[in-house]
Amino acid sequence: MTETQTSIMPLLEVCNLSISFTQYMEGLRQKSLQAISNLSIDVRAGEVIAVLGSSGSGKSLLAHAILGILPSNAMISGKMRYAGENLTPESQASLRGREIALVPQSISFLDPLMRVGEQVRPSMRNGNSSAIQREIFARYHLAAGTERLFPFQLSGGMARRVLVSIAAATNARLVIADEPTPGLHPTVVKETLAHLRELADEGDAVLLITHDIAAALEIANRIAVFYAGTTIEIALASDFSGEAELLRHPYSKALWQALPQNNFIPLQGSQPYPDALPPGCLFEPRCQLSSHECKAAQPEPRHLRGGTVRCFHAA
Fold it and tell me: What is the residue-wise DSSP string for 106-139?
């Protein structure tokens, strides 16, 4: 990322976000599950920031919190700001689908009973919606006539491009792409990522949620690594290289070194469940650098070598 990009104020700021859910047990007893704790991230116009993490690390929950579509039993604390203003339920409802758009992870979000062109056109606010929709479809290499098809008549790649088209049609300033590439042919993956990069190059802020490091590195300016519901490192995409010497957190390094092309070293253990979080650092039970300090308290995020890390031992 250039010096100019780093100086731009974030379009979206999430600071110390915590999300828990109340569950009923036997005999109407209640239990609180901490799904996200003290999570912080920001996204700037003109950049793609990729969120990496295993299942259950809080990636999709973050997207739902930003959009204001969490279930009613969710309890939220912390701050979220968009364009300098606090995100409230009222502002989220106003921005959702207009300035903040979601590219969902499943093509099942398309209405199976509606032609796809009709699903894109309502997102447009001005101009000839039919002409603009056809222009957007052409931009994403959807042939003339695709607008008259139903979702079941589309290939997986075509359906993904329709979903990206809906986001593009909104003229959104923030695009959240939630796992947009799983199960797709490598060529379609490359196309989908290129479309998201194009949105950023045109001035949008793009939050790419994925578990695929290789896909993230294709287009991202920065990478945010999530673990057990919190941000443990935010680094430049270029830091994911070599022997991981530029990375700061042991988990980020382990993710990189576990790739087949990078020694294929498996990380022992598993991510803790929300109802069994350790009292200190969330990664401590699996970390070779573990110390008494790590067991006693969760480290605060700190700036280090141009990135952010949550680790007592990072240097």
Answer: -GGGS-TTS-HHHHHGGG--SS-HHHHHHHHHHH
DSSP state of 285: G
- Taken in order 254, 50, 179, 85, the sign of the CA dihedral is positive
Give the model confidence (pLDDT) of 101-139 as tens digits: 999 888 888 999 999 999 999 888 777 899 999 999 998
Contact criterion met (CB below 8 Å) for 189 and 177: no
User: Based on the number of CB atoms within 10 Å of its own CB, is 128 exposed (0-12), middle (13-18) or buried (19 or more)?
Assistant: exposed
Q: Are 244 and 252 a contacting pair, CB within 8 Å?
A: yes
State the residue for tokens 């997102």. 123
Tens of pLDDT along 2-54? Answer: 434 445 799 999 999 999 998 887 777 888 899 999 999 999 999 999 999 99
- Residue 207 near residue 49 (C-beta atoms within 8 A): yes
Return the exposure string of 69-86: e unless at least 16 CB atoms fall within 10 Å of the residue's CB, then b: ebeeebeeebebebbeee
Radius of gyration in angstroms for the set of CA atoms belonging to the chain, rounded to a whole number:
20
Q: Helix/strand/coil (H, E, C) string of 188-211?
A: HHHHHHHHHHHHHHCCCEEEEECC
DSSP string, 26-60: GGG-EEEEEEEEEEEEEE-TT-EEEEE--TTSSHH
Q: Kindly report the CATH number that applies to the domain delimited by 3-99+172-309.
A: 3.40.50.300
Choice among 47, 179, 218, 233 that is catalytic: 179
What does pTM read for this prediction?
A: 0.91
* Angstrom distance (rounded) from CA 294 to CA 296: 6
Q: Are 162 and 116 in contact (CB under 8 A)?
A: yes
Annotated domain spans of the chain: 3-99+172-309
- The yes-or-no answer on residue 179 being catalytic is yes
